[in-house]
Amino acid sequence: xxxxxxxxxxxxxxxxxxxxxxxxxxxxxxxxxxxxxxxxxxxxxxxxxxxxxxxxxxxxxxxxxxxxxxxxxxxxxxxxx
Length: 81
Fold this sequence. Notes:
The protein is mainly alpha-helical. The protein is built from two helices and no strands. Helix content is 74%, strand content 0%.
């Protein structure tokens, strides 16, 4: 009887040990996945911030500015003479 009790206790202890090891593996796997996701998101954020802070230098064609002074009869006379 005592032998049976000891074997049951040993089996229960072994099962707890397996459960503990499985739980630790799951925890570490989730932790690694979380860290990998954090690294990925940080890289995306830094790339976005870098793109916003350093805009691309695109040369646009120059546009003509509108005449800044109004034409008056006096200006017309100056140009005609």
